[in-house]
Each structure stands twice: as structure tokens, then as C-alpha cells.
TrEMBL record:
The lineage of its organism: Bacteria, Bacillati, Actinomycetota, Actinomycetes, Mycobacteriales. This is S-adenosyl-L-methionine-dependent methyltransferase. Coiled coil: none annotated. Exhibits S-adenosyl-L-methionine-dependent methyltransferase activity. One of its GO terms (molecular function) is methyltransferase activity. GO terms for biological process: methylation. It holds the Pfam family LCM. Its EC number is 2.1.1.-. The keyword Methyltransferase applies. Belongs to the UPF0677 family.
Length: 305
């Protein structure tokens, strides 16, 4: 594993590059013939010269195949489908929270999420975005010519540190109901930081608050098989002198001791709903991910009464 307790990154390195990976999928979906979601900011965010090398690496990892191998195109499309379905789900979550009168949102590990700029937020909504300083700086600089629809408050802090303090200092009001989102995050946090994240969300949530979490159900055997496929491809690419340093599995903390996210919130008095990502894909007319993928993800939403 390539992680240390207090490691740090920018948008082009380590965990930062995973934000590029998912934004690349949103850009591809947006440019497709019949897109499920429209993220017009994804393309400019991933197209800067600073990300030239990262784009090549992450698309190679995604596909898990040589550039001219048809399996690679199929696998890349699976990834795009999954990201489209997940974005669609959490976009709808925020729309429902806004319709219920919530005017404060916190996107933890926001990465290149452009929801503050592209969702139809009611007037008076504030969106707090938590991520590492350089990741948030990159997004603000790249989108400098665009105006967010909500009031956007960046909160540059590591989620392994005292992020509630930083959030409060950025203006967060714990007396108001909030819609929280943790999308594409949990495996990148140590188990203790995940627990602390949930404890703080619980403590900072007024009555009527909501939370949404992408829960990663990892199949250890399938993950090993995916790693083996990648190792073969990596060796070939390295022999050609290509950079293969990007591998999200290297960036994951192990799952040991992690509670089920839905159960955690249910135990703490939230009303929880769980949506299976494959079933959601089918509902939306998208091919669910192939069985050999190492994930059986769920989308958890919960409401505090
Ligand atoms: C896969 S990306 C997901 C980004 C965004 N949520 C999305 O779905 O587009 C993971 C993000 O988590 C952020 N992240 C991971 N660990 C973090 C930590 N300890 N503190 C702050 N941000 C973190 C990374 O910087 C990166 O932007």
C-alpha cells in the first residue's frame, strides 16, 4: 500500500488522481449520445495540460487492457455507466433535500465535483466542499470564469484531522438541517477516520438533516483477480517505458473493522434506505457492472428525524 498516516497530494498525484478518474467518466457520459447526467464542468476540469499524464494513466487502469483490446473499451464503458448512475443518484438526493427545504450541503472529499456550479440550488443555499487544499485550489483556478449557483465555501482540510473545526470556521451552522454527501471516499480513509467522520456528521446534524454515502462492498477474491490482470498489463506498459504509477487499490486502506454504513446510521437513530448500485443501473436502463468487478456497491441515504 502506497499510503502513510499523514500523506498529502495534489490533483495529479496519489488520491488526487482518483478525482480526475471519476471526472473523466462524467465528461465522457456528458459527451455521449444520450447522457444520464450533464456535467459540463467535467471536461474543462480534466483537460488542463497539468493532467495530460494522469488522463493517460487512469484510462489505462480503468480499462485494464491494452489500448487496442476490445475488452478495454467494454470495461471503460462499464466504468462510465457506473459513474453516470452514481452521479444521477446523488444529484437526485440533493434535489430532494432542496425540495424538503434544506439550504446547507456539505460535500466531503469533493474532488472535482461541480455540483455547486451545476445543480439547480434554491436561492440561499450554501455548499461546503471539503478536500485537501491543492485539490480545491485546482478546481477554483480551473473554473475561475464560472459562477457557482449556490454559495460555494471551500474547506481545505484533511478528513483525518479536525475538519469539523475547519467547517465551522468556514461558516457552517450546526443548528440548520444539512444534506451531507460522501461519494467516492470511504476506502481512502483509514477505518478510524471513517468512524470519526460518521460521529462528527451525527454530532453536527440538526433535526431534518440527511446523509448520503457511497458504500463500497469489496469482494476480496475478485479484487485479487483484478490486481493480477493489472499486474500483467503494467509489466507490458513498463517494458514500453510508460508510467504506471496510478493504481487506486494501492491507495485504499484495508477494510478491517469497518461497520456497515447503513447499520451505523440506523444504530444512531437515522432512518436509512439502501439502494443496490446494480439494481439502480438496471432501473435507469444501463448495463450493471460485470460480475467479475470487485465491487458490490450500495448507495445509502439516511434522514435524521
Ligand atoms: C475518487 S475521488 C472522489 C471525488 C468526488 N467525491 C467525486 O465523486 O467526484 C476521492 C477524493 O477524496 C479526497 N480525499 C481522500 N482522502 C481524503 C482526506 N483524508 N481528506 C480530504 N480529502 C480526501 C481526494 O482528494 C479526492 O478528491
Amino acid at each position: 500500500m502506497a499510503r502513510t498516516a499523514d500523506d498529502s497530494w495534489d490533483i495529479a498525484t496519489s488520491v488526487g488522481a482518483t478525482a480526475v478518474m471519476v471526472a473523466l467518466a462524467r465528461a465522457a457520459e456528458t459527451a455521449s449520445a444520450d447522457p444520464l447526467i450533464r456535467d459540463q464542468f467535467a471536461e474543462p476540469l480534466v483537460s488542463t495540460p497539468a493532467l495530460d499524464g494522469v488522463r493517460e494513466q487512469v484510462t489505462a487502469w480503468w480499462a485494464g487492457a491494452e489500448d487496442d483490446d476490445p475488452d478495454g473499451a467494454v470495461r471503460a464503458q462499464e466504468m462510465i455507466n457506473y459513474q453516470a448512475v452514481r452521479t444521477h443518484f446523488f444529484d437526485a438526493y440533493f434535489a430532494a433535500a432542496a425540495a424538503a427545504g434544506i439550504r446547507q450541503a456539505v460535500i466531503v472529499a469533493a474532488g472535482l465535483d461541480s455540483r455547486a456550479y451545476r445543480l439547480d440550488w434554491p436561492a440561499g443555499t450554501t455548499v461546503y466542499e471539503i478536500d485537501l487544499p491543492k485539490v480545491l485550489e485546482y478546481k477554483a483556478e480551473t473554473l475561475a470564469g464560472s459562477t457557482p449557483i449556490a454559495v460555494r465555501r471551500p474547506v481545505p482540510v484533511d478528513l483525518r484531522h479536525d475538519w469539523p473545526k475547519a467547517l465551522r470556521e468556514a461558516g457552517y451552522d450546526a443548528s440548520q438541517p444539512t444534506a451531507w454527501l460522501a461519494e467516492g471516499l470511504l476506502p481512502f480513509l483509514p477505518a478510524a477516520a471513517q468512524e470519526a467522520l460518521f460521529v462528527s456528521i451525527d454530532a453536527l446534524s440538526a433535526s431534518g438533516s440527511r446523509v448520503a454515502v457511497e458504500n463500497f462492498g469489496v469482494d476480496v477474491d475478485k479484487r485479487r483477480e483484478a490486481e493480477e490482470r493489472w499486474a500483467e498489463l503494467k509489466a507490458k506498459r513498463e517494458a514500453r517505458g510508460q508510467d504506471t504509477s496510478f493504481n487506486p487499490f494501492d491507495l485504499w486502506f484495508e477494510d478491517e473493522g469497518r461497520p456497515d454504513c447503513g447499520e451505523w446510521f440506523a444504530t444512531h437513530g437515522w432512518t436509512v434506505q439502501t439502494v443496490n448500485a446494480r439494481e439502480e443501473a438496471t432501473r435507469l436502463g444501463r448495463e450493471p457492472q460485470n460480475d467479475d468487478r470487485p465491487f458490490a456497491n450500495t448507495f445509502i441515504t439516511a434522514t435524521r428525524g
